[in-house]
What we know:
By secondary structure, the chain is of the alpha/beta class. The chain folds into two domains: 9-85; 89-226, NAD(P)-binding Rossmann-like Domain (Rossmann fold, 3-Layer(aba) Sandwich). The chain contains seven helices and seven strands; from the N terminus they run βαββαβαβααβααβ. It has helices at 18-29, 60-71, 90-109, 129-132, 138-157, 184-193, 203-215; strands spanning 9-13, 33-38, 50-54, 82-85, 120-127, 163-170, 223-226. A seven-stranded parallel beta sheet has the order 3-2-1-4-5-6-7, sandwiched between helices. Helix 2 (60-71) packs parallel to helix 3 and helix 3 (90-109) packs parallel to helix 5 (138-157). The protein is globular, with a radius of gyration of 17 Å. 39% of the residues are buried. The model has no long low-confidence stretch (mean pLDDT 91).
Amino acid sequence: MLNSLRNLSAFVTGGGSGLGLAVCRHLAALGARVVTIDLKPSEEFQSDNVIALKGDIRREEDIQEALKQIQNREDGENHLDVLVNCADLVKINIYGTFNVIRLSIPLLAKSPKKFDGTKSVIINTSSILAWEGHEGQCGYSATQGAINSMTLPLARDLAHEGIRVNTIAAGFFETPLLMRSNATELLDFIKCATPCPSRLGKPEEFVQLVQAIIENPMLNGEIIRLDGAVRWPERG
């Protein structure tokens, strides 16, 4: 599996911070060619194999502009091997995720066929709050559940194109949103509620699972919880 991601073509949404940024860094470090889109793109990428664009994945024209960066590559490798959806706002979650998938399918289907008939992979990100939302989180939990529910039907719909579909249902990770300075009490509660390891997840641990999904062709149609066995209790 050494350097198995080298020269892969990847499209990452939500790559401006948090888990999406970690995915971009990791894929680029392994030699993948990455296009990423975010409302606030990161300015850290200066390498030739990362293109960071500002855009809103609810807008079809913004997605198409990002996909053009893949279609117009000078080396002629104008297909897409990996799509990772990490954008995480309530209004973006379901509409944005579905839009990106819908518009990316033609490029994902152009990826070279491997010996077992697989071509490319879609990795969506949801949350454990799809199952364990608190009061006041109805809208957010509903969007996470919708992403989970799309996983198996999409995997079946796209099987004839050799496109796999999986979802990572993430627990609580060290992201800028969660690590804000006024969240000390919440962070302590999360650590106590997480059996093992009793801490927040690290972005690199999320990225490790992304890489495993890319590299393992039998992972398809799955919703994988990555949460240290935390089960979010009802508020007392």
